[in-house]
Write a structure and sequence with these properties.
The chain is an alpha+beta fold. The protein has three domains: about 1-105, no CATH class; about 110-215, Periplasmic binding protein-like II (D-Maltodextrin-Binding Protein, domain 2); about 230-495, Aminopeptidase (3-Layer(aba) Sandwich), CATH 3.40.630.190. It contains 16 helices and 19 strands. It has helices at about 1-40, 45-65, 70-105, 140-155, 170-175, 190-195, 200-205, 295-310, 320-330, 360-365, 375-395, 400, 405-415, 420-435, 470-480, 490-495, and strands at about 110-120, 135, 160-165, 180-185, 205-215, 230-240, 250-260, 265-270, 275, 285-290, 315-320, 335, 340, 350, 350-355, 415, 440-445, 445-450, 460-465. The protein has a six-stranded mixed beta sheet with strand order 16-11-6-7-8-17, sandwiched between helices. Strand 18 and strand 19 (about 460-465) form a beta hairpin. Helix 1 runs parallel beside helix 3 (about 70-105), helix 9 (about 320-330) runs antiparallel to helix 13 and helix 10 (about 360-365) packs antiparallel against helix 11 (about 375-395). The longest helix has about 40 residues, at about 1-40. The chain is globular.
Amino acid sequence: MGNNKNNRRKKRKNRHTVGKILAILQIVLSIVFVVVLLMINILPMKYLAIIFGILMFLDAFALGSQFTRSAHIIGKVDCVLMLFLLAFANVYLIRTNATLFSITSNDYKVDRIAIAVLNDDAAQTLKDAADYEFGAQVIGGSDKVEQAIVEASNELGQDLAYYNYDDPYMMVQDLYDGNVGAIIYNTAYDSSLTEQFPNFAADIRELKHIEIKTKVETVSGDKKDVTKTPFTVFISGIDTEGSIATTSRSDVNMLVTVNPNTNQVLMTSIPRDYYVQLPGISGEYRDKLTHAGLYGPQCSMDTLSQLFGVDVDYYAKVNFTTLRDMVDALGGVDLDSVYEFTTISGEYFVQGMNYGVDGSSALAFARERYNLPNGDNDRVMNQQIVMKAIINKCLSPAILTGYMGIMDSLSDSFETSLSQQQISSLVRMQLNDGDGWDMLSSRVVGTGDENTCYSSGDNVLYVMNPDENSVNTAADFINRIRNGETVTQDEITASMMN
């Protein structure tokens, strides 16, 4: 009898020991959860207090129940459920913190320099082409081309023979004509070269590419309290896939002006081919706005600040990978198209609402201009439609199921000069107030023309001459939003029709 009683006591003790271990694990995960929440700092204090109180109660019950005969089973069930819940929540929070750090701390850029020959050339390696005469690009990243030439020469153990070209289009034409055997150029120009030579991508073959990583100065932008002070962010959509650090043209150019006091947001789109001066770069010469991206976001910010006469405080840069992956993570978006049209890549859109558009199709919708009545003027309108659709989907329950996918898409293909603290404060303000935002859309227009561009040598390209009236009107709306005046979409729409 005595042995049986002792055995039962040992079994109960073992069961309680397991429960105590589970309770301690729950307390540890609760502490980790609270610490990460405090690090991210996105929750208002009232929510933090509630969460902290609930966790303390559940942790105390989980541990205390293991010292009782009647409640220890309920305590174990509570522990198991809480362990799963806390583990899941901690993964979300840690991923969020890592993403916020990643998108706000990028301090370098990557220039990808290609050494290429025609596709039917006999050379298969750089060594095979060692005695060729090369054409080398000397504008828009020429210092990186020179670094690549030095690296390639060192690899071969001999100097490369090359001609410098300040016109990349002439360089490619000379490759086609056989005047040079190979070219060395910054692949940031791939899209521009393809516009001039439609089969360029298929006609050439890379023998080697060299990636040159350069530390960059922090883009200007003070650390103002963005929950109280109006600000303007330059949104740049670069025309590359992969790493956001890769030097590229800025195909999407938008100023987003936010007034946190009036809860109004104004999106002002600017056509990529706007013919403008690039401050500090082009001098008295003009260039396409899209080419400002080749010189970094600060150049684009300065260009638009000069164009509109307004302060541009921060930038946010995304690439095609970001948009496609984010839309797919959200399960598609609904696009309200002004026109019925088919993109050059074959995607068809009806006039009115297009439901459940996937990432690749949304990207095609935002990039199309050739099959729209007003070309680039309509494209910037479609880009705003896509942005609004993404914002609306992010404010829906779809954000819960697509959260991790969104974090993955942002971490490697999005960067901003807003600090992690500023982003956290905006989220905290929204959670605390719960106010809706009045999203307004504006755009500037122009007339098509052909002219030489600073970044393209003597080659004549399609450009768009700015319409001064639309620029002045758009600048007025930006200033009114920043000054706290209430602006309506009807007012903006009426001004664009005049």
